[in-house]
Write a structure and sequence with these properties.
By secondary structure, this protein is of the alpha+beta class. The chain has 2 domains: about 1-40, no CATH class; about 45-300, no CATH class. The chain is about 60% helix and about 5% strand. It is built from 8 helices and 6 strands. The strands form 2 sheets. Strands 2-1-3-4 form a 4-stranded antiparallel sheet. A two-stranded antiparallel sheet has the order 5-6. The radius of gyration is 24 Å and the shape is globular. The termini are far apart.
Length: about 300
């Protein structure tokens, strides 16, 4: 027998009649039962907290836009400054202007964007990591980048020589492969946190070496185009890779927000994710701005690091 159309219940049971204390305190969600449906809606205090956080987040986003220099490339420089050494000799050039990120960081966030974009199209609701052999191969991509980075670091110092002569194309390639690994792990974690679970069997973000090979071919083609040095290619590469920093940080922070608020696995549409993504974006921009200000106060330069060759 269905409860009445106006009966309110909580996870702890029916609401007590007027004048009597409930036996158990209500949980975070209240549910309205009708004969035909059950509708879940959040408790009112959470709605007010969410609206306040969203308003503060919008303010933070506007502040970042206004406080950073005008122009997309200049804003990209400010974003990149927070996470990259920006040594000019390690960066690809458009004319005489270095890209916002060094070649390795450009590849890392370009690869992450390639992976995330591919999965969003082809594996929209994938919540499982790749099979272990494929995952191990992805981890080896990161190991290759680490080896190339160490070799490049050794060659920075006069009188020291690594295993081979560093090259920006190699930095870009190993960084892009590392970005594929980053995206292949971040995407299923994000999907598994954001969306309401369904009865569909879980899908892997990459199911086989064949699919990994296709993703690697896409990355190699992108690296090949970027290596031409053509401004018409490098400008989009610069903007996409810098945007990749913001996207990755926003997704990570949105995951943290949902977990802390105990709201994971509740979204049924992109609209449901807007508050968490806005808060995640605002937190990311605040972190970027804070790190940039502290770095400039300590180094007094917008490129390179004091004591290291440029």
């Amino acid at each position: 027998m269905h409860p009445s159309a106006h009966e309110l219940v909580t996870d702890a049971g029916p609401v007590a009649p007027a004048g009597r204390e409930p036996e158990n305190p209500p949980d975070v969600l209240l549910r309205l039962h009708t004969p035909d449906e059950q509708v879940a809606f959040p408790e009112r205090p959470w709605r007010w907290k969410r609206r306040t956080l969203v308003a503060l987040s919008l303010g933070m986003i506007i502040l970042f836009i206004l406080a950073t220099p005008a122009g997309l490339m200049n804003k990209a420089d400010m974003i990149a400054y927070a996470i990259c050494h920006r040594i000019p000799s390690h960066s690809m050039l458009v004319g005489e202007r270095p890209l916002p990120l060094c070649a390795r960081c450009t590849g890392t966030y370009l690869g992450a964007m390639l992976a995330l974009g591919t999965f969003l199209i082809a594996r929209r609701k994938a919540t499982e990591l790749p099979p272990f052999p494929v995952l191990l191969t992805l981890v080896s991509f990161s190991a290759l980048m680490a080896i190339d980075g160490l070799n490049s670091y050794i060659n920075l110092f006069p009188g020291r020589q690594g295993l081979y002569q560093p090259h920006n194309t190699l930095r870009l390639l190993t960084g892009t492969l590392n970005g594929l690994m980053m995206g292949s792990i971040l995407y299923p974690v994000a999907v598994g946190t954001f969306w309401r679970l369904t009865d569909r069997p879980p899908a892997r973000v990459l199911r086989s070496f064949r699919e990994l090979g296709g993703l690697v071919l896409l990355a190699l083609a992108t690296v090949g185009l970027a290596s031409t040095g053509l401004p018409i290619i490098l400008y989009p590469v610069a903007l996409i890779s810098s945007a990749g920093i913001v996207v990755v940080l926003t997704v990570v922070n949105a995951i943290i927000v949902l977990v802390l608020a105990r709201r994971e696995n509740t979204a049924e549409s992109w609209r449901d994710l807007i508050p968490a993504l806005l808060i995640g974006l605002a937190v990311s921009l605040a972190l970027i701005g804070t790190v940039s200000v502290v770095r400039y106060a300590l180094t007094g330069t917008l490129s390179g690091l004091p004591g290291l060759p440029s």
